[in-house]
Amino acid sequence: MDTTYWLYDMILYIYALGLLFYFSDFVDANRRAKRMGAGLLVFVWMLQTGFVLSRIWGHMDMSLFSRFEYWLGVSWLLLTASLVISRFFRIEFIVFLVNLIGFSVLALNLFSNPNSEIPLEPWKLAQELLILHISLVLCSFAVLAIAAVFSGMYLFLHSRLKSRKWSRSMARLPSLDQLDRFSYRLVLIGVPLLALSLSVAVSSVIVEDRLNYLLDWKVITSFGALIMYGFYLFKRVVQHKPGMEAARWNLICFALLVLNTLINPASNFHRWS
């Protein structure tokens, strides 16, 4: 990465240090380490917010957009959400686990070329729709990622309780009922956001009379993920499936959503490459 992105490197190092402090609390209930980690993550949020704003200011007309900015936005949203959750809800380990994903996204983003941009000029008539689509996708991915974390915590706690392998760290986890409820409510938020983002994307394609893009793999797998989440809600609401099955299905849905983001280079819809 260019030396002008020294701020990005500094964010990564401080982010990693903050997660190390949180890991100490994760392993041995070290409250002092947790406070240090929280302070560092707040500092990272401030630096990352400044970096995001500088990227936005770099091209205010939004005529260019890159995969680098997309994943930067995902990481920022995950960090923001984790800090909000820790402020208003006493849920142990959620900050560490959510930010583990956020840090991984930020680190892997080093392999993205910030100068390889998606030209939006050809989509002049639908440019505002595409900007709205990108915003909705960012929010839905972050919300559904946190829902997946809660489902993962549910499966872990359930397996430990079933095998009667109790540990001190398990006492700091929410109950199975709480984990199931948190995950379900986040999916209820994330799925409509995902549906709206896809409807906006389809609208932009129709406005620009580029209907051939509807057969793109990116579009097909996006609707596939939406249908699977719809099936999850059907099983959860109509069939009243137990939390164990719902948690597994939620993780499968999110795995498809992640796969959907990984095929971006093979997609003509976004032209990430």
UniProtKB/TrEMBL annotation:
InterPro entries hit by this protein: Cyt_c_assembly, YpjD/HemX
GO biological process: cytochrome complex assembly
TM segment ranges: 6-24, 36-58, 70-86, 93-111, 131-157, 186-207, 213-234, 246-263
Pfam families (UniProt xref): Cytochrom_C_asm
Keyword Cell wall biogenesis/degradation listed: no
GO molecular function: heme binding
Domain Cytochrome c assembly protein, chain residue ranges per copy: 73-263
Protein keywords: Membrane, Transmembrane, Transmembrane helix
Top-level taxon of the source organism: Bacteria
PANTHER family: INNER MEMBRANE PROTEIN YPJD
Record's protein name: Cytochrome C assembly protein
